[in-house]
Amino acid sequence: METTPLLYLCIVFVVILIMSLLKPPVHPKKVDAEPTQPRMEAVEAVKYVTITEATYTAAKTGAGILYRIVVNGGTLGPIMVYDADSVSGIPITTITHPEPGMVLQYGVEFATGLAIVTTADTNINVAFY
């Protein structure tokens, strides 16, 4: 008895059919009608202080995070920022040549407090947690 190409084709078809029945079906991932949002931890709101003159400012007492300093304008002069409740604390940063429009990002922790010394009538916003 001779085997024909048609018989080979039928055998291959049957083998493929059996293999596909033995393989688990692939299901697409379920898509929710509404996307789920990642869980957000409670975050303390950002606070800020605006300084417009040459002065010492105790912005915050206790631990926190210096978030950002924005230079708005005014008579520009050096700005010193301390981890302290007075001007004798640990220096965090000194902005020697502030310019209007400067946005300085920090994200720096302080432990004792946040104190800012402006040496001229520089208009700044200091944001912190």
Question: Can you tell me about this structure?
Answer:
By secondary structure, the chain is mainly beta. It has a domain at 47-128: Jelly Rolls (Sandwich), CATH 2.60.120. The chain contains one helix and eight strands. It has one helix at residues 5-22, and strands spanning 47-51, 55-61, 64-74, 79-83, 90-95, 103-110, 113-118, 122-128. The strands form two sheets. A four-stranded antiparallel beta sheet has the order 1-8-3-6, with no helix packed on it. It has a four-stranded antiparallel beta sheet with strand order 2-7-4-5, with no helix packed on it. A hairpin with a 6-residue loop joins strand 4 (79-83) and strand 5. The chain is rod-shaped, with a radius of gyration of 33 Å. The chain starts with a helix and ends with a strand. 15% of the residues are buried. The model has no long low-confidence stretch (mean pLDDT 84).
SSE map:
Layout: H1 5-22, E1 47-51, E2 55-61, E3 64-74, E4 79-83, E5 90-95, E6 103-110, E7 113-118, E8 122-128
**Which regions contain 5 or more consecutive residues with pLDDT less than 50?**
none
The CATH architecture of the domain at 47-128 can be given as: Sandwich
Average residue-wise pLDDT: 84
Number of helices: 1
Largest sheet: 4 strands, antiparallel
What is the 3D form?
rod-shaped
Q: Got a strand count?
A: 8
Q: Please report the first level of CATH classification, the CATH class of the domain at 47-128.
A: Mainly Beta
